[in-house]
């Protein structure tokens, strides 16, 4: 029985990784406007994180979703630390286990 440590691979969202931008060609896409409702504190954390990385909220969400679709973590350890700070600042005490239990009052 092997007791090798698990290896975690963290990658940055490609939109704010300048090296990726320089090495790969731009992809032409069509964006649409959407009216998505989201938990208030979660949105505040996402907006602050996007601002921190000089991204639009849409670009940040696209990067997160594209990574998730491939089963990859979208953030570096440094960014995860920033997220933890922002969650504390905005009082976001929700985790992944809350995702299917959220209801509006």
Instruction: Give me the strand/helix succession.
Output: HHHH
Helical content stands at 40-55%
Low-confidence stretches: 4-11
Query: What amount of the residues lies in strands?
Result: under 5%
Secondary-structure-based class equals mainly alpha
- Give the CA-CA distance, first to last residue: 50 Å
Look at the structure and give the mean pLDDT: 85
Question: Would you mind describing this structure in some detail?
Answer:
- There is one protein chain.
- This protein has a domain at 14-24 and 35-94.
- Helices cover 43% and strands 0% of the residues.
- It has helices spanning 18-23, 40-52, 57-69, 77-89.
Task: Write out key terms for the chains shown.
mainly alpha
Write the layout of secondary structure elements.
Layout: H1 18-23, H2 40-52, H3 57-69, H4 77-89
Helix pairs in contact: 2-3, 2-4
